[in-house]
Specification:
This protein is an alpha+beta fold. It is built from 6 helices and 30 strands.
């Protein structure tokens, strides 16, 4: 594996370690295994946007770099130019420009691709020599990116880093955070200035000012290893935390913890779980009462009542010891019955909401471990096109700004997964265009072109909402 050396662990450099998290478990014990079986932000809820004509690409972060599937997991190809030999722990996709990707590597910082993973280049200016465990992109302003870090298997990194220029540069953004490994960073999709950080045995921390300041949000939670955090896309006050372990003999609950008050307090929601080492969580983007939990040893569990009860859904998953220790989960936002799970034995796929699973590994080298998965969101180029057209119109600044504001609001609503709000904003845009035409400020041909293109966007949103794609 390439990359800088970062720290001796059991007298072995990270560079020299075999690329298997199960080996790490057996070699250096529980503390290290908890670090390297992390659930990463690439698995978090990806925004539902306009219906795409073809299946979205799936990206897998692996011990052999990044792999890509363009056919719903039927086959995979390496997408590694610039990443060869690098262990990639996290992957994230720009929600407004899906050809732009970010990958977090073991000891090598952040990498960026602007061509759908064909080529990668280092994007680590300002980052310490860290392991990048998690990446999160602001859905409303994708130039803003956060990463959670560690410097080695046992020691924290510099915590959370933030970029506001598409990973050209990074700054530490840690005021109030403990000196802890940051396993996961989650963004509230309805208010991206609100962030949550899951730590290694220090619980959850919250920021309401875009990571400038952090406060503990741990009431009811042990000094826990927070493997994953997800925000309910339909109710931003509701969050779920996947706990992979806790200190002091787990005197506080592990498993899945839920908050209904923006992380002010937490309660365990573990009825039906037979493994309380929960390493990943996923929320159905079309019905947030439906959740999936990936566990260290017992496979996947499903809840259809917002976490109140869980049942095992692992038929076809390999569940031998260490076979599913990472188990990242991701749901196709345009077909929520289609779910992908990553294991130390590659990718598994379900097309029936987790009831049955089958291997989806064609193209992976032997012994490929999957550390994170992400599905390309549906693109929104049409709104960007309409914005460009409006900005070229000969209107006074007030009229033009009013039109652009409506379009950008619709774009942001789509990035948050709210097609209903986006539709309303686009209808308001159409009404203003019609008013400008009636007043003689816009000619008929221009107005008709803008209205027709906007109505096509609304139609696509409607088709997505009704499941016709």
């Amino acid at each position: 594996m390439s990359g800088k050396k970062i720290m001796d662990v059991d007298k072995l450099q990270i560079n020299e370690m075999p690329r298997s998290r199960s080996w790490l478990r057996s070699k250096v014990g529980k503390g290290l295994s908890k670090l390297v079986s992390l659930t990463l932000v690439g698995l978090a809820f990806l925004p539902t946007q306009l219906a795409r004509a073809n299946p979205g690409a799936i990206y897998a972060a692996t011990n052999n770099g990044v792999f890509k599937s363009a056919d719903e997991g039927a086959s995979w190809t390496a997408a590694n130019a610039g990443l060869a030999g690098i262990d990639v722990f996290s992957v994230a996709i720009d929600p407004l420009n899906p050809a732009t990707l970010y990958a977090g590597a073991l000891g090598s910082g952040v990498f960026k691709s602007t061509d759908g993973g064909q080529n990668w280049f280092s994007a680590s200016s300002g980052l310490d020599d860290t392991i990048i465990l998690s990446l999160a992109i602001d859905p409303a302003s994708p130039q803003t990116i956060y990463c959670g870090t560690a410097t080695s298997a046992f020691f924290p990194g510099s915590g959370v880093f933030k970029s506001t220029d598409g990973a050209q540069s990074w700054t530490v953004s840690n005021a109030g955070l403990p000196a802890a490994i940051i396993d996961v960073v989650a963004i509230d999709p309805s208010n991206p200035a609100t962030l949550y950080a899951g730590t290694n045995f220090d619980g959850v921390y919250k920021s309401t000012d875009g990571s400038q300041n952090w406060v503990a949000a741990n009431s009811g939670m042990a000094p826990a290893l927070v493997e994953d955090l997800v925000v309910d896309p339909a109710d931003s006050a509701a969050l779920y935390a996947g706990i992979g372990g806790c200190s002091f003999n787990c005197l506080f609950p592990a498993g899945v913890l839920k908050s209904t008050d923006g992380a002010t307090s937490w309660t365990a929601v573990n009825t039906g779980l037979t493994d309380l080492q929960v390493v990943s969580l996923a929320v159905d983007p079309s019905n947030s009462n439906v959740l999936y939990a990936g566990t260290s040893l017992d496979g996947v569990f499903k809840s259809v009542d917002a976490g109140a009860n869980w049942s095992l859904v692992d038929s076809g998953l390999q569940s031998t010891l260490f076979a599913i220790v990472h188990l990242p989960l991701v749901i196709d936002p345009l077909n929520p019955g289609r779910i992908y799970a990553g294991t130390v034995n590659g990718v598994f796929k379900s097309t029936d909401g987790g009831i049955n699973w089958s291997s989806a590994n064609n193209g992976f080298p032997p012994s490929t471990s999957i550390f994170a998965l992400a599905i390309e969101p549906a693109a929104v180029p049409s709104i960007a096109s309409v914005i460009a057209q409006v900005e070229s119109l000969e209107l006074n600044s007030g009229q033009k700004n009013s039109l652009v504001t409506k379009l950008r609001s619709a774009e942001e609503s789509l990035a948050r997964g709210s097609g209903f709000a986006a539709g309303n904003q686009l209808h308001a845009f159409i009404n203003q265009i019609r008013a400008l035409e009636r007043s003689g400020r816009l000619d008929r041909a221009t107005a008709s072109s803008l209205i027709n293109e906007t109505q096509a966007i609304i139609s696509a949103i409607s088709q997505r909402a009704s499941g016709r794609h």
